[in-house]
């Protein structure tokens, strides 16, 4: 029995693989940057362990997540994951971009990008990642992500740049006002998740030019800052994973065509492809 986990900024997708069956389930996001050891163990105890009926048979745990480039965070996750399974259960910890690269099933050099609550990018040669750009998080980076798109939308709302009709639709659909937004951004323990929660509004209202421009601006920033500077980018197949890339697949494809890049390929569910290993 093997347990896989792919944790993003909003949720963590789990897959339990046995000789005869595969089971998938979700938990809240597990991020060592933002969660304490006690918080992570609480999630594992209440949302993961109940799904594992025979922990003594768990041979290995593969955990892929954000912030795991750094040794301290990997050690933190390893300590927490030890409460799952038995003393003989092996634990392997890797980054979320490695999960996305593996999920492409590509055996040739390619570019792999994550556009979810956050964003990231790497080159992949079929065996390992290289040319990794640092993931700077929602304050300094995450261009093209759900949090980034939500931030642009909130800026336009708070700066009173939205037309009255769009402003009213936004306030009604998302139940917001300036005070609520500022409170959630500056007092909420997960402001990146809060900002990304406005993506369904963007997706359902993209028929309006100003909303279309918000989406286009956020996605194009990612392309210009992260894809275009790669040497010989025109030679590489380009893969996208993450919920934002799936929701805005048409827009992303159009932007890449505009910048004369290869037509992108999309991986819908990373965890499903990991479970095929």
Report on the structure:
- The protein is an alpha/beta fold and 277 residues long.
- The protein has two domains: 2-99, Nucleotidyltransferase, domain 5; 106-267, 2-Layer Sandwich (Nucleotidyltransferase, domain 5).
- It has 13 helices and ten strands.
- The chain has helices at 37-48, 71-81, 96-104, 137-140, 146-158, 164-174, 178-187, 191-196, 199-204, 209-227, 243-247, 249-258, 270-274; strands at 2-7, 11-17, 22-28, 60-65, 90-95, 110-115, 119-124, 129-130, 238-241, 265-267.
- Strands 3-2-1-4-5 form a five-stranded mixed beta sheet. A five-stranded mixed beta sheet has the order 8-7-6-9-10.
Based on helices, strands and strand pairing, what is the structural class?
Answer: alpha/beta
The CATH superfamily label of the largest domain reads: ATPase, nucleotide binding domain
Number of helical segments?
13
Radius of gyration: 19 Å
CATH topology type of the largest domain: Nucleotidyltransferase, domain 5
The number of distinct structural domains comes to: 2
* Second rung of CATH, namely the architecture of the largest domain: 2-Layer Sandwich
Q: So what's the overall shape?
A: globular
Beta-sheet strand percentage? 15-25%
Short summary:
With 277 residues, the chain is of the alpha/beta class. It has helices at 37-48, 71-81, 96-104, 137-140, 146-158, 164-174, 178-187, 191-196, 199-204, 209-227, 243-247, 249-258, 270-274, and strands at residues 2-7, 11-17, 22-28, 60-65, 90-95, 110-115, 119-124, 129-130, 238-241, 265-267. Strands 3-2-1-4-5 form a 5-stranded mixed beta sheet. A 5-stranded mixed beta sheet has the order 8-7-6-9-10.
């Amino acid at each position: 029995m093997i347990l896989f986990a792919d944790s993003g900024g909003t949720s963590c997708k789990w897959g339990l693989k046995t000789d005869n069956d595969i089971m998938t389930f979700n938990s809240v996001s597990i991020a060592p940057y933002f969660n304490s050891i006690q918080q992570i163990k609480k999630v594992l105890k209440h949302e993961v362990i109940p799904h594992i009926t025979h922990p003594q048979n768990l041979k290995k745990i593969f955990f892929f997540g954000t912030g795991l480039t750094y040794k301290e965070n990997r050690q933190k996750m390893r300590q927490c994951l030890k409460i799952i399974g038995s003393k003989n259960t092996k634990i392997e910890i890797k980054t979320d971009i490695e999960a996305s690269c593996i999920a492409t099933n590509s055996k040739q050099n390619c570019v792999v990008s994550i556009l979810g609550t956050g964003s990231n990018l790497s080159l992949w040669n079929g065996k390992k990642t290289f040319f990794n750009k640092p993931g700077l998080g929602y304050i300094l980076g995450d261009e093209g992500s759900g949090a980034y798109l939500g931030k642009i939308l909130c800026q336009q709302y708070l700066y009173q740049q939205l037309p009255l009709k769009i402003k009213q639709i936004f306030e009604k659909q998302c139940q917001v006002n300036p005070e609520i937004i500022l409170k959630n951004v500056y007092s909420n323990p997960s402001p990146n998740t809060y900002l990304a929660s406005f993506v369904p509004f963007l997706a359902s209202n993209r028929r309006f030019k100003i909303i279309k421009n918000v989406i286009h601006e956020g996605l194009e920033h990612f392309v210009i800052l992260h894809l275009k500077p790669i040497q010989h980018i025109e030679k590489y197949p380009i893969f996208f994973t993450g919920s934002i890339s799936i929701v805005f697949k048409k827009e992303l494809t159009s932007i890449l065509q505009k910048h004369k890049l290869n037509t992108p390929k999309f991986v819908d569910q990373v965890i499903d492809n990991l479970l095929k290993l």
